[in-house]
Amino acid sequence: MWRGAAALAWALAVPAIAAPPELRVVERVDLARYAGRWYEIASFPQWFQRGCAATMATYTLRDDGKVGVLNECRQDDPKGKPRSAEGWARVADPVTNAKLEVTFFWPFFGDYWIIDLGPDYEYAVVGHPSRDYLWILSREPRMSADVLRPILERARNQGYDVSRLRWTRQP
Fold this sequence. Notes:
The chain is an alpha+beta fold. The chain has helices at 2-13, 31-34, 145-157, and strands at 36-43, 52-61, 67-75, 82-91, 99-105, 108-117, 123-127, 134-138, 166-167. The chain has 3 helices and 9 strands, in the order ααββββββββαβ. It has an 8-stranded antiparallel β-barrel. The longest helix has 13 residues, at 145-157. The chain starts with a helix and ends with a strand.
């Protein structure tokens, strides 16, 4: 009984941690324009990308309305052994097409929300409502500081700790 009462007292004494504000996505994504090859510029470190360099993602439109996903990287070095993972995504918000759900191990899905997108689809920023995942993607293997600075500021304004970003080594 004492443990339960102590736990309740502790829970009531510790202030609740405020949830981050709702993650905003872009107004509209044309999936046909979004399809193609993307180079990872930076991301929050994730266990499934441990040791990855030269990371790329390729998205394709499938006949069934879903999006094919091919993630590729090189182990430890841009010239290292190739690794890949193949999955697919479904649109979770057909009004914007900016909220996708991706699976590499069906039936488990993860949120893939497009929170920033270049006017010519030259860059994209993908996040998750928890703020535990963030990817900065580009059509080119490198991104200029002039383009990157405002992207980082917008991500920061959405509640992301951009100091956690790991910069991806590209060839």
